[in-house]
Amino acid sequence: MSNPRPRGPAVAEAVAAFIECTLDLAAEIPPGRVSTYGRIALEARVRCGRGSARGVGRVMATRGDEIPWWRVVTASGAPAERVGDRALALLREEGTPLVGGRVDLTAALHTFDLGTVVPDDGAADDTADDDIDERERTHA
């Protein structure tokens, strides 16, 4: 079964740009603050033209060691399940406000440059997710 989506240098460049944009956004989050996968995806759409929460999650899972990955949490304030205890320990060290096993998002949510995040119109471009998967398969 073939994939009808175009592949090639343009797609590879777009995926690489999304990955770098996601890493740059996560690196902007200061100690003691967090952002969510969804908020980073929204900001990535504005800055890079594409982004989805799943795509951000994939970038964090595959390239998160390059940035303070523990500062990216779910919409409920919980860290990703596979790194939960380690993330919570690092968040505590930074003085991030926690309530139970979650970040207190009302106190700790980082806002990116005001005015750049646009409301989600429901038209997320999940193409980047599949392209990241494809790139992982071909470079693994």
Your description of this structure?
This protein has 140 residues and is mainly α. It has one domain (9-109, 124-139): Winged helix-like DNA-binding domain superfamily/Winged helix DNA-binding domain (Arc Repressor Mutant, subunit A). 50% of the residues lie in helices and 6% in strands. It has helices spanning 9-28, 37-48, 53-63, 84-93, 105-108, 127-139, and strands spanning 35-36, 72-73, 98-99, 102-103. It has a two-stranded parallel sheet. It has a two-stranded antiparallel ribbon with strand order 3-4. Mean pLDDT is 81; it is low at 117-140. Pfam families: DNA_binding_1. This is Methylated-DNA-[protein]-cysteine S-methyltransferase DNA binding domain-containing protein. Residues 22-95 form the Methylated-DNA-[protein]-cysteine S-methyltransferase DNA binding domain. Residues 122-133 have a biased composition (Acidic residues). Keywords: DNA damage.
